[in-house]
Amino acid sequence: MRLIFTLFLLTIYSSISAQINESIIEFAPTFNDLPLELNKNYCFKNDSLKISTLKFYISNINLYQNNQLIDSVSKKYNLIDVENPETSSIKFLRTNSMAFNRISFSNGIDSLTNVSGAFGGDLDPTNGMYWTWQSGYIGLKLEGQSKLCPSRNNAFIFHIGGFKNPYNSIQNVNLSTKGDRKIILNLDISKLLKELNLTEIYEVMSPSKKALTIAQQFSNAIKVYE
Amino acid sequence: MKIKVTFFIILIFVTFVSFVMQEFGLIYPSYFPKPQYDFSKNPVDSFKITLGRNLFYDPILSADNTISCASCHSPYNAFSHTDHTLSHGINDQIGNRNAPALFNLAWQKSFMWDGAINHLDMQPLAPINHHKEMGETTKDVVRKINASNFYRSLFYQAFKDSIATGERMLKALAQFQLTLISANSKYDMVKQGQDSFSTQEQNGYALFLKNCNSCHTEPLFSNFNFANNGLGLDTTLKDFGRWMVTKNSTDSLYFKTPSLRNLSFTYPYMHDGRFKKLSDVMNHYTNGISQNKYLSKELTKPIILSSKEKIDLIAFLITLNDKHFVFESKYQYPKN
């Protein structure tokens, strides 16, 4: 009886502490300041475009107080797929009570994981984020159509990855945060597409200099939502 | 008498230990180097091997359920294919390269003729997704496997969970392929002191060590590096090999050096299957090298062999055939 009571107390305690210690990092891609909608036609003066796929990996999230590492997110590899809204939020339990005011993470998958065989969960090759003709994870998939692209069906297709120098595409992102319970990260896709220069670059599907540039442009587009 | 018996037992034990190494249940000779495969990440067990063997022989892996791994990697050909110079896929399509033999894979650093695949686990993704080979998607293969009652129990036995995932499918396929160890040729018996070479084979062995061993290094008979062995470019294929992977022009026409074990079962030879006979290969190395800027340095000095020497060398190479491997029932089509 006493044991059951103790267990009951423990359960209550752990559920309360879980609520206290849970934080969330949410990715909110936008298009012209509105939430991005997949397969929606966005019309402009000289362009009409739509995004059909936006998937990317966020890995090794670390939390800092000023410059001191105080915690890290236990789930190391997170696949964000805009088609599945539940993947846009990374919920995690804090292992200590110190507040953080800075986060760092990587866009893409580290080289060790890229050479260590099969993994499951977010890294499972069935997620379509692994090249099949050559080993390596795809860190970012961005696909769609734009009148600016001279390609068949005006399609653009970016499969960005590569883990070996000189085309190691993994990017480290460092951001100061306000508060440490819910961090909303914005990704301004309309701005990113302008930078990508779709009239000239619209098919990048292997590790290369172009892929590296796009990986940098993509990680620069991630900002803390003010 | 007792001392004699003890001595005899110790002798047997020492002999056994010196020729047999074990790595997570896989047995291989002690003169083999340390495997490249990290078994700690995928510990081998009989249920996963059985699952992998069933997947290997199952055409469910292809888009129209007609082509299995074994279609191009037949056990009787040391898991290569002899009917075609280039691989044969769904809808009678012909691929771009000669299907390589599969054995001693735990020792290989990379896979495919150009080394594009860096890990045995990930290798099946290439043929599964290639439009001219199995023409499937990884996701759809896993969906089909999950719809099969037969696989539900095999996955449960292997992973204590009946759900198939990409990771589990790949790890099981890797495990079956890791068991494909070829180490029972006459060469191995000689190495283990259980047989001896004929004079002709011994001559051939000496010629081999002098002319071939720097790339086809014993005891695996390959260093598994890449080489430009002076094959002229086939202009119908325009296959530049490793150059396409590294994007480094100095890798032009570099292909992975294959093992020479089981040669009699694995014709035709080379990445494009251009040579049907071992004698064609011999003649290539003595007379057929096409000089090019990136020719491997091991071949810049001509290899000179008399016709008798060629015959002796071939006699040695034939000692690398492993009939036990080719006819081993546990590697063949699973009978459930």
Model description:
The complex is a heterodimer of chains A (226) and B (336). Chain A has 226 residues and is an alpha+beta fold. Chain A has one domain (23-224). Chain A contains 4 helices and 14 strands. Chain A has helices at residues 2-21, 111-114, 189-196, 209-220; strands spanning 22-31, 34-35, 42-43, 48-65, 68-72, 77-81, 89-93, 102-107, 138-146, 155-161, 171-176, 182-188, 203-204, 222-224. In chain A, strands 3, 4, 5, 6, 8, 9, 10, 11 and 13 form a 9-stranded mixed β-sheet that branches. In chain A, strands 1, 2, 7, 12 and 14 form a 5-stranded mixed β-sheet that branches. In chain A, a hairpin with a 2-residue loop joins strand 4 (48-65) and strand 5 (68-72). Chain A is globular. The mean pLDDT of chain A is 91. Chain B contains 13 helices and 4 strands. Chain B has helices at residues 2-19, 46-56, 69-72, 125-129, 138-146, 149-159, 166-178, 186-191, 199-211, 243-246, 278-288, 307-318, 323-327, and strands at 21-23, 26-28, 226-227, 255-256. In chain B, a hairpin with a 2-residue loop joins strand 1 (21-23) and strand 2 (26-28). Helices cover 36% and strands 3% of the residues of chain B. Chain B is mainly α. Chain B is globular, with a radius of gyration of 21 Å. In chain B, the strands form 2 sheets. Chain B has a two-stranded antiparallel ribbon. Chain B has 2 domains: 39-181, Cytochrome Bc1 Complex, Chain D, domain 2 (Orthogonal Bundle), CATH 1.10.760; 186-320, Cytochrome c-like domain (Cytochrome Bc1 Complex, Chain D, domain 2, Orthogonal Bundle), CATH 1.10.760.10. The mean pLDDT of chain B is 93. The A-B interface holds A 114-120, 123-128, 130, 132-135, 208 and B 38, 41-42, 116-122, 125-126, 128-130, 137-139, 142, 165-168, 170-171, 174, 245, 247.
